[in-house]
Amino acid sequence: MAVKITEECISCEACASECPVAAILPDGNEKNPKDGILYVKPESCVECVDHADSPRCAEACPTEGAIVWDMPYTVDFNSYYLTGNEKGEYKIREHKTKGLMLPEVKEQKFRADITMATREAHANVSDF
Ligand code: SF4
Ligand code: SF4
Questions:
Q1: Contact at 8 Å (CB) between 90 and 59?
Q2: In which band, very low, low, confident or very high, does the pLDDT at 128 lie, cut at 50, 70 and 90?
Q3: Staple 43 to which of 85, 89, 101, 121, CB 3.0 to 4.6 Å?
Q4: What digits encode the pLDDT tens for the residues 23-33?
Q5: Keywords of this protein's UniProt record, alphabetized (predicted)?
Q6: Mean pLDDT across the chain, nearest whole number?
């Protein structure tokens, strides 16, 4: 990851079509572990690195606090995402031969200019 969508989301779906890597799933999608809100697949989100100057989803979102920063999808945060997956916070894709597509299997790009404090606070993406 990544960014993530919170309970503030009003399911307007303005963000999903803006994602350059199709990382945002609508409410009701079988791969979306959430109920009533959209979901960002952390194993797919690249924080729009190489696509835009800032996350496109957040630019499209009309709702304060609906799209927030999450931890980078890197090996340093492998257990963070594994634990989150076990708790149902995430639903990491399971590959037939590679198993769960955790950061230790495939890291994703992230914005190095976003501080860890900002990520830990899950600060609103639009504020940065
Ligand atoms: S930050 Fe970019 S890549 Fe990640 S979910 Fe939003 S639009 Fe997609
Ligand atoms: S644009 Fe914002 S409020 Fe609308 S579905 Fe996406 S996250 Fe939710």
A1: no
A2: confident
A3: 101
A4: 999 999 999 99
A5: Iron, Iron-sulfur, Metal-binding
A6: 96
Would you say the CB of residue 92 lies under 6 angstroms from ligand 2? no
Rounded to 5°, angle at Cα 19 from 16 and 14? 30
Evaluate whether residue 26 is within a structural domain.
Answer: yes
3-state secondary structure of 29: coil
Best mutation site among 63, 70, 125 for ligand 2 pocket (most ligand atoms within 8 Å of CB): 63
Is pLDDT above 70 for 1? no
pLDDT, tens only, 53-77: 999 999 999 999 999 999 999 999 9
Which of 6, 9, 24, 27 for a ligand 2 pocket mutation test, highest count of atoms within 8 Å of Cβ? Answer: 9
Query: Three-state SS for 3?
Result: strand
**Gap between the Cα atoms of 68 and 119, Å rounded:** 8
Q: Ligand nearest 12 Cα, by number? A: 2
Q: Which ligand is nearest to the CA of 19?
A: 1
CATH number, domain at 10?
3.30.70.20
The domain of 128 spans: 1-71+109-128
